[in-house]
């Protein structure tokens, strides 16, 4: 409701400001109420019609979606200039709060100076740069939050459909822009300040706004590559960042150990650690493919995903781990490198071979790579590395000893939908605990074998949001919903639409064949 009120205030305030402005400068105020015509009058008031070419340019720019937002803000600044209000902070306020500033100008005793009869106001070079930088930051913030942003894939969890080194365009309009829930933040910085080694937050939690999403072009669909905030990242350890969640560390090391640890082991070194509780929009960004939609039943049997009992297509460029045995004396590294196996995957395979004392390379491979290897005379065998159900694996969702699931044999699990009433039992409660407690803010407890939500005994719960099931295309090298469960709708940031550029770090060169490729491609 608060966002509807703010939107009304923005619209009504700006319109009232134009009414008062037109009246102040001698124009009939009713002109402010006529769409498009009010902009034409406003452009003339601000002196942006000195030539026919300039006037037409402003008209055209106001007709272009997204661009017209910036033209509106520019006219607000030009309005301040016509009143000889040159102060930097006042003009910045005008850009940020035009719905307040325009009525303020109209009601104040500021005198209007017709720009057609005056020379353009000149400012110092330093002030010119400051104005340009400020406007650029405001513009970038609007674009980043409302339209699109760029995202770099740092890991191999989506290979080979989306690859490490891909720079993606992520559309905020695809599912509707999500309003900021933590508005007091350093512009254009996600959650930590640069040059602080991840130890200093870039935001303040003094103001927290509820989740709200504006209308977009569509909804999340199956197989969409979705960018979202890490659901398991509500609490995190700065030592591990998003590589291992606080909750996973607690399961492995114990809550007291993690809470009291000033340093935590990361690889072969000890790293300074602090516990952070992060709001939804400041959790780490992840990208995975949407596999399950709200209200569906999902199950994985021998690596095949079933939705409502029926198998679904596997992305053709996705990878499954296979065990590969080469003949003796073969240069396995060169063969695998020529086939597109990353250096990281090859190094991991060597580590597994040494640890297990095996002669097989354990490698994530696409179906095409498997066929090519099977056809080679220097390869003895290629077989799937299917992981059976694992008793007591607390790192697999729902992280409970009651479930013996694995990443390859998982479920069935029901994905909650908004407005759906879930039947709760002590057996299925671990699946929905974080939905009820963490994502929807209720107090949940089990007392004397009974389930209590907010102090009231119950056997059901009605969900307030839609939830999704996300999985990486590199199925055996992806920490996804199989590890931490559902992705709530309020965590979803946008849809990856296109690969803008791609850099192959293994060979130190661009992947030109990936430039401008669709990020959703299932071909």
Describe the secondary-structure layout:
Elements: H1 2-25, H2 37-45, H3 52-63, H4 67-82, H5 88-96, H6 98-107, H7 125-146, E1 148-152, E2 166-171, E3 225-229, E4 235-237, H8 246-253, H9 255-260, E5 263-266, E6 269-272, E7 275-277, E8 285-292, E9 297-301, E10 304-307, E11 310-311, E12 320-326, H10 332-338, H11 343-356, E13 361-365, H12 367-374, E14 379-384, E15 410-414, E16 421-423, H13 429-439, E17 444-447, E18 450-453, E19 456-457, E20 460-462, E21 467-471, H14 481-484, E22 487-488, E23 492-504, E24 509-510
Antiparallel strand pairs: 1-2, 2-23, 3-8, 3-23, 4-7, 5-6, 8-21, 9-10, 9-15, 10-11, 12-13, 12-14, 16-20, 17-18, 18-19, 21-22, 23-24
Describe the structure concisely for a colleague.
By secondary structure, the chain is of the alpha+beta class. It is built from 14 helices and 24 strands. Helices cover 31% and strands 21% of the residues.
